[in-house]
Design a protein that fits this description.
The protein is of the alpha/beta class. 27% of the residues lie in helices and 25% in strands.
């Protein structure tokens, strides 16, 4: 058996790059289908090489995380792009993405774009204080700090339409040399859809070619685990008067007191409350 990693999958064929550097086109054993398991781009696998660069996937090694949509496994970090203008920042969406990534075991990195139209320094500082790496850029200048984070990592980029994902990816991956509007078409997808995912070697790491997604389907948030998706809340959570504190409007809530005192950003607590109410309603509906 040979160890390798799936770099793309199209029509049931999986391109596996082996530890020796060769690319082997593999089919998955029927056993996976019976077990309800689908190999994903990013999976570390064991294969049987049949020769002529063809083979079979025999085993999928344990995943440290996975996204169901777009379908990818073993991401190290997810760059979350949020524009300062056109469109305006949607902080509740951003906070939802951060919490979901964090709870899925993927490091969220926040990038505020279009900072030539409106400064992103205040938000960059806010999220930095929350414990997240954050950047502010106008996309027209130096993006080397972001490029420097790609080395020896597997990364993906996420953000609403119009926030500058394609522009940033063009600067990071200049070999594409494409007009921004053509990237999704070149990669074989329509807007906001992902038919397949491919890993590209970039700056000493790997970048998933998923410039078109603005949300992702991963670990489901619950009202019980939500507080752990807000890093700056965690030190206060154990100080609440009641063990079952929801951190919304509860008496003796240390998180609420910290938000009222300005130790936790008001926008972050508002996002938490809105998410908590959605999750609570969903839970009650599911009952």
């Amino acid at each position: 058996m040979i160890n390798g990693r799936i770099h793309n999958s199209i029509g049931g064929n999986f391109a596996v790059r082996t530890e020796q550097g060769s690319l082997v086109t593999c089919r998955a054993r029927g056993l996976f289908r019976k077990q309800g398991v689908t190999p994903l781009t990013g999976d570390w696998v064991k294969i049987e090489n049949l020769g002529n660069n063809e083979g079979y996937i025999l085993d999928i090694l344990p995943r440290k995380n996975e996204l169901r949509r777009p379908p990818i496994a073993n991401l190290d970090q997810l760059f979350l792009l949020c524009s300062m203008k056109k469109p305006r920042p949607n902080l509740q969406l951003l906070d939802t993405l951060i919490a979901t990534a964090d709870l899925t075991g993927i490091e969220p990195v926040v990038v505020f774009t279009k900072c030539d139209l409106e400064s992103g320094d205040a938000l960059r500082e806010l999220y930095g204080k929350c414990g997240y790496q954050s950047f502010a850029t106008d996309l027209g200048h130096d993006v080397s700090p972001i490029v420097g984070m790609l080395k020896e990592k597997t990364s993906a980029f996420c953000g609403n339409s119009g926030v500058g994902k394609s522009t940033l990816l063009n600067k990071i991956m200049p070999d594409l040399a494409l007009p921004t509007a053509e990237i999704s078409e070149k990669l074989g997808r329509g807007r906001h859809t992902t038919r397949h995912v491919e890993l590209y070697a970039v700056a000493g790491g790997w970048v998933a070619d998923t410039p078109g997604f603005s949300f992702f389907d991963a670990l489901e948030l619950t009202k019980e685990n939500l507080v752990d998706g807000f890093r700056e809340f965690v030190p206060y959570a154990g100080q609440c008067r009641f063990d079952d504190c929801a951190h919304v409007k509860d008496r003796g809530c240390a998180i609420l007191a910290a938000a009222q005192a300005g130790e936790i950003a008001k926008s972050r607590h508002e996002s938490y409350v809105a998410l908590y109410e959605q999750l609570k309603d969903k839970h009650d509906w599911d009952k």
